[in-house]
Write a structure and sequence with these properties.
By secondary structure, the protein is an alpha/beta fold. The protein has helices at residues 16-27, 77-89, 112-115, 133-143, 165-179, 211-224, 258-267, 285-288, 319-335, 342-347, and strands at residues 8-11, 35-39, 47-50, 53-56, 58-59, 70-73, 93-96, 125-127, 149-158, 230-237, 244-252, 271-273, 294-301, 308-315. A six-stranded parallel β-sheet has the order 5-2-1-6-7-8, with helices on both faces. Helix 1 crosses helix 9 (319-335). The model has no long low-confidence stretch (mean pLDDT 97).
Length: 348
């Protein structure tokens, strides 16, 4: 099957990640008649611009997936829980962006540059990681070729589109109000996000970490196939529209040379080293926005740890952090002729 022959459903097409998936499909010139935009019942009938044409949003029901080959779910855990397995029964290959299936041991959690082989054992569903885990595991996968990794300390600086369209609108409206000296009551976040940072993403757990921070530990271990990996994360929401950034400190079993680290990072698929402090060149959210690659820079020895490397990265959270990774999973499954569940493929 040619990629342009695939019938694709985008579930959550009116949201930030779903909209980005449509943008990426347009960049690939995927035919309009091979795309079905799906969303909630209240969005049914809406028109979404797709190049010179329009897509009419349909209500995401089980029957709506008739004739679909691949479904990208980007509509939240409730929708995935309600529909995904039923859709698989109709012969659809499901790629889920949400967190509902990520830690299910029967479902692969995939970043194609890191663990594409895991696609081979999928049961009809492949999950994609949290948008902060994706660039982190790519960096760790590159660097562990130099020495085994013992521990990671990461602080994230996450854009508001990680929360969704409403959060981005809140940032813009709050910023206008603040500059005009007007009051604005937060609706999406517990505190103002304009001209502020919130060290609070998702719910707090009993140990003081948040669910978002726990995801970075659990998802990194699953993707890298390393249950002994130690990850301590602090996740922070910042007043940025697009792109997540991360400050990462990595401890190794043995000494890692900075030049070797730069080399393996620059050679890694989907990654670009931007690291010339003398010219003020380093990754930034603005430079990462709209790009498919993870930008890495500020690579240096970690002065707090004998065998440590410190670095900084930026990644478009809507592209590689979400929609692009999902489409790359689709591409890899197509290349492997692995749209059907592993059990069905083995039976034939």
């Amino acid at each position: 099957m040619n990629s342009n022959e695939i019938n694709i459903a985008i579930v959550g097409a009116t949201g930030a990640a779903g909209g980005t998936a449509l943008e990426l499909l347009l960049e690939r010139n995927h035919p309009t008649d091979k795309i079905v935009a799906m969303a909630s019942e209240r969005s049914a009938g809406k028109k979404i611009q797709y190049g010179d044409t329009e897509l009419t949003v349909v209500h995401a029901t089980v029957d709506a997936f008739e004739g679909i080959d691949v479904a990208l779910f980007a509509a939240g855990g409730y929708v995935s829980r309600r529909l995904a397995r039923k859709v698989v029964e109709k012969g659809v290959f499901v790629i889920d962006k949400g967190s509902i299936f990520r830690m299910d041991p029967t479902i692969p959690l995939v970043v194609p540059e890191v663990n594409a082989d895991d696609i081979e054992w999928h049961p009809g569903i492949v999950s994609t990681p949290n948008c902060t885990s994706t660039p982190l595991v790519m960096v760790l996968d590159a660097l562990r070729s130099l020495s085994p990794i013992t521990a990671v300390t990461v602080a994230t600086y996450q854009s508001v589109t990680g929360t969704g369209v409403a959060a981005n609108e809140e940032l813009l409206e709050q910023s206008r109000a603040a500059l005009a000296g007007e009051n604005y009551v937060p609706q999406v976040y517990p505190h103002p996000i304009a001209f502020n940072v919130l060290p609070h993403i998702d719910d707090f757990l009993e140990d003081g970490y948040t669910k978002e921070e726990q995801k970075m530990l659990n998802e990194s271990r699953k993707i890298l196939h390393d249950d002994s990996l130690r990850v301590s994360a602090t996740c922070v929401r910042v007043p940025v529209e697009i792109s997540h950034s991360e400050s990462v400190q990595i401890e190794f079993e043995s000494n890692v040379d900075v030049l070797d680290a730069e080399r393996v990072l620059s050679e890694y698929d989907g990654m670009i080293v931007v690291d010339d402090p003398s010219k003020n060149e380093y990754p930034m959210p603005l430079s990462a926005a709209g790009r498919d690659e993870v930008l890495v820079g500020r690579i240096r020895k970690d002065t707090a740890h004998e065998n440590g490397i410190a670095l900084w990265l930026a990644c478009d959270n809507l592209r590689k952090g979400a929609a692009l990774n999902a489409l790359q999973i689709m591409d890899e499954a197509l290349r492997r002729d692995a749209f059907k569940p592993a059990a069905q493929r083995m039976a034939t």
